[in-house]
Amino acid sequence: MALVNLNGILEDARKGHYAVPAFDVSSYDMAKAVVDVAEELNSPVIFMGLKADLTDDAFDIMSVVMGILAKKAKVDVCIHLDHANDTALIKKAIAQGYSSVMIDASTKPLEENIRITKEIVDYAHMYGVSVEAELGHVGDGIVVSSESAAQGDESGGHESAFTRVDELECFTAETKVDALAVAIGTSHGVYRGTPKLNLELMEELNNHSSIPLVMHGGSGTPEKDLLKSIELGMCKINIFSDILKGYYSGMKEFLNEAENLSMWPSVGNKHAIEEMKKVIREKYELFGAVNRNR
Asked: Most buried in the list 74, 94, 124, 252, measured by CB within 10 Å?
């Protein structure tokens, strides 16, 4: 179909009261699995490149891979840079064909977050690239710093870092950002306990927001909370750990039963990819994103 930015995909989601899953992909197999399932379900694709997982030349290589898959796809594809705080990397991604970027200055004071985000928005919009930012701060469930461990609890939620309603309207008005990641109690990575989402805050944030809202840390969040968040206006939900779990669980199951480990990679990876596709399919169906391609 076409390479698109976030705007059309998320505007439709907000109007239609569903969410689109966004998948971090760090290999051809992962990216191809997302496209295959999306085409099967007639659903739009949001690929995400994550610098922490795409080191050295891998970032450049995956830019090409995602671009080729987007060009050949039968559905709309958005190539989105996830969690970047480096202006040079953001400009590099735009030059390499990313149609959307995230600037994460959420650890900065509000005024600094606004200034940095506005600079990126002004630059990206010149090239038709959409921008996602973060207000409040979503914690990290895999790599926990001493500071976050001291401030948080086992759920990964950090109430002191929740998005504030009184800051949202000012932030979006001054930055002209296209989508906003909000902190309501989710965490990135693997939860150390069951997350406790502040759904009342989610509803209030959406009521005061003129733009689509995004959930980071969708993996491992209870389905009932995901569904309620979507009902209350969440439009994009980021997924990474869940598809990794699907892939590696499938790989482990296959290899534990294999008698001969000298096999073609296409044979050895087949079961793992199918298990990953199951997870991708489940997310599209759960979020109400099936048959949503324009």
From this structure: 124
